[in-house]
Amino acid sequence: MESSIVGAAVAAGLAGILLGFFFDRLRKGSAYQGREEILEQARRDAENQRRDEEIAIKEEMLKRREEQEQKLERRRDKIRDRERGADKRESQLGELQNGISKKEQMLQATQLKLTERNKATEARQKELDRLFKEEREQLYKISGLTKEQASEQLLLSIERDLADEVGALIMKHEDEVKVECEKQAREIIGMAVQRYASTHVSETTVSSVDIPSDEMKGRIIGREGRNIRAFEKATGVDLIVDDTPGVVIVSAFDNVRREIGKLSLTRLIQDGRIHPSRIEEVVGETQKEMEEHIRRMGMEACEEAGVRGLHKKLVDLMGRLQFRTSYSQNVRQHSIEVAHLTGMMAEQLGLDGTLARRCGFLHDLGKAADHEMEGGHPAVGAELLKRYGEGEEVVHAAAGHHDDIRPEYIYTVLVAAADAISAARPGARRETLEKYVRRLEELETLACGFPGVDHAFAVQAGREVRILVDSSYVNDRQAKKLSRDVAGAIEQTLTYPGEVKVTVLRETRAVEYAK
Q1: How far apart (Å, rounded) are the C-alpha atoms in residues 469 and 455?
Q2: Which of 294, 361, 418, 488 could form a disulfide with 341 if both were Cys (CB 3.0 to 4.6 A apart)?
Q3: What CATH number labels 433-506?
Q4: Model pTM above 0.85
Q5: Domain extents in the chain
Q6: Which CATH number applies to 208-424?
Q7: Kind of pairing between the strands at 247-251 and 238-240
């Protein structure tokens, strides 16, 4: 039994081994078969990829070949175009060569004709020279003059003719230049006046102070007049308290002092405390404020006129001109106007506009100190400008803008013209009616006082006097002398703004009646 069991076990073991061996062989066979299939598939894929790459390479080669053929075709086209252009230029050159050949033939023919004409001209010139020589010898025989004498007389005749022509030409050009200069001068002055716009309101220095009631007059006078005496002593002005209701008059020769007195009195009336110590205090404060105000006015004037770098003293003097008037025209405003007008005219003439404005701005500076120094305001202003380092052009413009000296610089002439424009424009200056009428009467009376004068009329607001003379008593030369004498008498005896034109009219009338 055991042996059978062992035998069965052995058989079973052998059977298991055989079965394992069988299954192992079976598994290995299927693996081998799968490997072959994979390798075969790989070989097929590689072959397909190789074929695809060969096809892509062939397509790329075909594409490049087509591009190269296109480039070669384009180059062939360019070469053919160049060949056609070369053929065309060659034909043009041939035509041009033919034209040149024709022109050369024409030039040769023309040269032959010119040669023949030159020969004919030389022959004719020789014939003319011979005839001229014969005629000249004949003239020498007829006139009895030598060649040198005849030449001298001919030259003298030509010289006289040329002298007359040159003189006439010079006079013609002088007249043309004079007319052109006057035209340009009018255009320049007119353009400057148009470009500069200024107010036409006259200014005047007010010297009256309003008071609230007549009771204030007694407080201003004070006990036994101590307040008014203290006020006049502190300010240097005259205080006039009269019967005029509501007004007190401040009078002084110095306009600055008068303005200080006016402002001080106004402040005292507003404050109400009027006694000597308070008067001195207020006047002292007002004087300091006035000095600062004067300097500020001078600086504002410099800024408005465009003038830089003035000495401090000159700025103060320019500020003082705010309180100076000339025929009711404010001198500070007048100086600013003259500065602008002079600068505009100088720039139109191609000159230095900055220097011209400086000359015009400072031309009346002497009016701020003419009461402190001897001499007229042109001389005083020139002395001050020279003292404070201004240039020769500026000094000369101040000294000569009223023709007191002979002008040496063009800026002096421009300043004089601008000064006349500013003073003569409408509204710049004004006079009272009484003064105006009296001045006209004085002009007419003075002119009528000369012998031979029939009538005299003051016209153009007193800027011109027209005199009618007896033609039987005064001839043309005497009329010229009469106008000069009247002008000299006006300068010596009358006071007037600007200048006065004297016109003498002489007329002879012959009257007859037909009966």
Answers
A1: 7
A2: 418
A3: 3.30.300.20
A4: no
A5: 54-144, 208-424, 433-506
A6: 1.10.3210
A7: antiparallel
